[in-house]
Write a structure and sequence with these properties.
The structure holds three protein chains of three kinds.
Chain A: E1 4-19, E2 25-41, E3 45-49, H1 56-63, E4 71-76, E5 79-80, H2 86-92, E6 96-99, H3 113-123, H4 130-143, H5 160-172, E7 178-182, H6 190-207, E8 210-215, H7 218-224, E9 227-232, E10 235-241, H8 242-247, H9 252-260, H10 266-271, E11 313-316, E12 319-321, H11 326-331, H12 363-367
Parallel strand pairs in A: 3-8, 3-9, 6-7, 7-8
Antiparallel strand pairs in A: 1-2, 1-4, 4-5, 9-10, 10-12, 11-12
Chain B: H1 2-18, H2 24-33, H3 36-58, H4 97-133, H5 135-150, H6 153-163, H7 169-196, H8 199-207, H9 211-247, H10 260-267, H11 276-303
Chain C: E1 4-13, H1 18-21, E2 26-36, E3 41-45, H2 52-59, E4 68-76, E5 79-80, H3 86-92, E6 97-100, H4 104-107, H5 114-126, H6 130-143, H7 149-152, H8 162-174, E7 180-184, H9 192-209, E8 212-217, H10 220-226, E9 229-234, E10 237-243, H11 244-249, H12 254-262, E11 312-313, E12 321-322, H13 330-336
Parallel strand pairs in C: 3-8, 3-9, 6-7, 7-8
Antiparallel strand pairs in C: 1-2, 1-4, 4-5, 9-10, 10-12, 11-12
Helix pairs in contact in C: 5-6, 6-8
Classes of the chains: A alpha/beta, B mainly alpha, C alpha/beta.
Amino acid sequence: MTGTLVEVDDLKVHFPIRRGVVLDRTIGYVYAVDGVDLAIRRGETYGLVGESGCGKSTLGRAMLKLTPPTAGRVVFDGIDLSTMRGERLRTMRRRMQMVFQDPMSSLDPRQSVESLLVEGMRAHGLDTGREATTKRLRSLLSSVGLPSTSLRRYPHEFSGGQRQRIGIARALTVEPELIVADEPVSALDVSVQAQVINLLEDLQREFGLTYLVIAHDLAVVRHICDRVGVMYLGGLVEETTSDQLYAEPLHPYTRALLSAVPVPDPVLEDRRERVLLTGDLPSPANPPSGCRFHTRCPWRQQQRCDTERPVLREIAPGHRAACHFAEDIRAGRIHPHEVRAELVEQGGEGMRVDDPLAGPASITEALGP
Amino acid sequence: MTARTDKIDELAQRAAESDAGVSLAAAAWRRLRRNPVFLVGAGIVVLFVVLAILSPLLAAHDPADPMLGDQVVRARNEIPPPQPGHPLGGDQVGRDLLSRLLVGAQQTLLVGVLATLIGLAGGLVLGTLAGALSGWVDTVVMRAVDVMLSIPGLLLAVSIGALFAQPNQYTVILAVAIVQIPVFARLLRGSMLAQRHSDHVLAARALGVRQRAIVFRHMLPNSLGPVIVQATLVLAIAIIEAAGLSFLGLGNPDDRLPEWGQMLGQAQNVIDSHPQLAFWPAGCIIVVALGFTLVGESLREALDPKSRR
Amino acid sequence: MALLEVRDLSVVFRSRGHQRTGEQPVAAVDGVSFDVAPGQTVGLVGESGCGKSVTAMSIMGLLPKRGNQVTGSARFDGTELLSLSDRQMRDRRGRDLGMVFQDPLSSLNPVVPIGLQVTEVLERHQGTPRKQAAMEAAELLDKVGIPDPRRRLSEYPHQLSGGMRQRALIAIALACRPRLLIADEPTTALDVTIQAQILALLAELVRDTGTALIMITHDLGVVAGLCDEVNVLYAGRVVERAKRHDLFAAPRHPYTHGLLSSIPRLDSPRGERLVPIKGSVADNIPWQNGCAFAPRCPNAIDTCVEVTPEMAVDPLVSRRLLRCHNPVTATQREALT
């Protein structure tokens, strides 16, 4: 069961910014994903966290080739997806599925639950007979905790949590190995989130799934993921096991992120020391030179930070970080200082990505922060 | 313990029974059925459709027969007044006005419905092509559509109508239909594009569903709502435009088969002395167009996802 | 002496034509009472549909008159807000009462520069001369942490980032130094690092200006760091009210307890299974039939579906109000942790 299932090698996704009335001219790029290396092991849950506009959703979609990568490779179970197209790619999709953030918009409102679920099976020839299919759908529904009477119903007749269960069941119909879950619980009510999180964990055990969970909520990611990658402006800045990340974050951005998450414990909240970041996320169309984080980094140093882009390197076993001074910060040799907020220009470029299927994963990515 | 669980079960049961498997269309119909605007509009439309279908039976007289011709006095500009057997009197050549209106309903509705259907079909093909294929197909189709849309509708219909050497009923239908094609094409392409960006289409793609199935199972059905609404509104416009063409003399020259627009056109010569000849066909056109517009507006309201509860 | 006294506030939505269709009018807020003292931060916590936002809107007089029936009372400094005319209410808003919304982009006027939107309030409510208003506006933007405020005055909302827009909105709400600020999910649309900035800003403002703050949120973490007193709402009613430390140390209502044990938290050991609340809001029963939460409640007893629980002082823990027949006990909490 061990071994690498997905390997991402220097993956880049740049969305062209087009302008023009009749003929579109490319006047720049949104560097949504800009050189990411990572590997997901079979059977593990890998988490991608970061704030809106950091490129995590785009990375997830590029890994499934739902958004064409600009450069780099995605290798799934030894098969290079980068060169794959057409029918071969389509059949390949059976092995890697996606669960979406908004369970309402990701379910076709005009299809009954049954036809939503049968669709994928039919596309891959798994629909072998009426009786067998119905049996399978019923067992799937019970796996995700929905009554079997749901088959004849329509998505709008379900609550948010139940819709997300339908979305998960749909992904499972084709017996995938990898499931990319893009913010699977953030659209749900607090009391329902736990149900879906537990369900994802149960299904992983039941079907031996590998997950890539994309989320902005660090508490959720920490809870379900074995390893976590932190993204900032299109690049991975830190990657390690979930426990290690929370125990000893090495990258200044991770530190800030962790200290910003509110904890439902007043005693802890009152005592906590916050690393408050000043200013906003720079525009991914015009990323800062050197380290992308240097404009907001409280540990920024005079040399290197604004000129040389740090690579993700192993600082402790299994713990990678992209910071020139990670060791010094860890050892307490350099201390945080005041940062003056820099102006971030908004929307001046008027980014308009016309090509729909090469489009950004989310509005926030098209518009910057 | 039992009292509690029983009660909860009972409540759950009641909730479950209330709506099992209501599709979007069924839910829209439920809302529509309660909407007074729709009921009025549908009432008008049904009334006229029934009249049109039954007009050969209802019309007491042959609409082409100038049976009251003897009461027409050209010199004194007299036409037959309402009289027993002819409640609306006769027209300027002495034909029974009521019979002409009734038979005219059939012709007018036929022109309107056929023109809309042809326009809808053309728009569906072009819009689906543009919306599904995108790329250069989209560019070519949409530029052509833009050019057509830049010409005012009636003017375009008149130009197309004038191309035919011998105008008749079918040239009118065709001219009006062609004018409607770009409207439908544009609308459909717009909502197809929105569908294309939607999560559920992406989900289908991620599932590995074939492109064709995505277009015809997901994108097209979900894009049709606004197009159907537009079709009912276009029906009203088509009737008015067809009437306009007939009025301008680009309609069926054979006035033995009456049509409201044509009747209106002929009435203009005597409008000063006999406004009733224009009043009746004009009134019919307005009421029918209103009926279709009301149906269309209430459909729009019912299909609007925001009004769903 | 409370600055704001809300008593038995109810809001009933009457959908258009409900008589014709025979639909029951929906009570979005069903008898909510709470007090806010000057300089105090009071939290209204609950999930979507629990009535927390509607409560705020009705206090601010922002609910459309048509189709909504607001009853009860909301006394601000002795004045009954619910009986004020539209005009009097407009006068109060901005001067005595400020509000910050969830989505800063849609609550700012997109075609008016930020500066003008701030000075407008100053000119209208305080009659500040234009020149001075511009200076004050720049000061306000500076105070809420917008860099280079003079330049920002002439910019439009779309030119600012989400966090900056929220700051601008706070600046507008604060322009006339309101005595009560209502923040309705002010950080929900923002990223965590920006959320931390905004929360720090709000805490600082309350400390420095003595403004009372009503914080409306679904995030218990936000409440834990900011609020003095917390009201937990469920299905239009307050089900538990306690001081912040008391509430989080020992939640007594099964709903509060369920919420706290169902969210993954950064400070708890990993690998622990979450304990979700079963079902969804759709399973609620009407309050008239008992406790709305009963169908989802692990602690429910027969009484829960027969007698509507009343808000009462907790027999075990004083300083706390509770609407429950069978609250969570210390032993139950132990069993879970």
